[in-house]
Amino acid sequence: MREVVRASDAISWAPVPLLEPYWRRGELAHLVMKPAPIDIEFGLIYQRHRTPAPAVTAFIEIISAIAANRPVPRNLTGK
To answer: pLDDT truncated to tens, each residue of the chain (79 aa)?
Structure first.
């Protein structure tokens, strides 16, 4: 993504530590923005007739809680 931004007028996001060297060298500009709530739609897909791995099931539970603005479950191991 960094190369797309460098070669065009695109914007993107990334963790600050990852891009800081490029800002110091003047290769990229740091666009500071206040986060605004955004409304997005998304979907999670996995193969039909396949049981998702426990990590995938936990990930789906976390994403579903975040999307529903519920507390994220802390104990996803079933213990």
So the answer is: 778 888 887 878 788 888 889 889 988 888 776 666 666 677 788 788 888 888 888 888 888 888 787 888 777 655 4
pTM of the model: 0.44
Query: CA dist 32 to 6, 18, 38, 60, 68, Å?
Result: 18, 15, 17, 31, 28
What gap in Å lies between CA 20 and CA 39, rounded to an integer?
Answer: 29
The rounded distance, in Å, linking the Cα atoms of 66 and 79 is 22
One-letter amino acid identity for 51?
Answer: T
DSSP per residue, 50-79? SPPPHHHHHHHHHHHHHHTT-PPPS--S--
Give the whole-angstrom CA distance, residue 46 versus residue 76.
19
Nearest to 32 by CA among 13, 5, 7: 13
